Amino acid sequence: MNSVDFLLTNKDITYEIRTEIKRLGRPIPDLIISKTDVGKSRNYSRNFNSSVYDRFKWLCGCPKRNKLFCFICLVMGGNQSAWTQEGVAWSTMK
User: What average pLDDT values come out for the chain (94 residues) when binned by 10 residues?
Assistant: First the structure.
């Protein structure tokens, strides 16, 4: 019930369900997100590290979509942004 996919596909959920989702906590799966950047002398590979969940307590992940979302925004019905609709790939964050 507290999966990102559930929250994205069920917009009209009751306050009681939202409270239960919050109690269950945010989903923090290991995601497989990587990006290779080309430098002047060599290529650099950046990979998602699940320790990012410790630094950003509002962050949650969706293994089905392989993207990151704002857990608070999803539960409370945030605005239409990448953090609440499409998700954000870690490699695109700065």
Answer: 83 88 92 83 85 93 91 81 80 52
* Cα–Cα distance for residue pair 29/66, rounded to 1 Å: 9
From CA 22, how far away is CA 8, in angstroms rounded? 15
C-alpha to C-alpha distance for 22 and 90, rounded to whole angstroms: 23
Angle at 22 (CA atoms; ends 1, 93), nearest 5 degrees? 90
Q: What is the distance between the alpha carbons of residues 34 and 90, in angstroms, rounded to a whole number?
A: 8
Whole-angstrom distance, CA of residue 18 vs CA of residue 65: 21
What's the CA gap between 45 and 47, in Å, rounded?
7
pTM: 0.80
Paired sense of beta strands 34-38 and 59-62, if any: unpaired
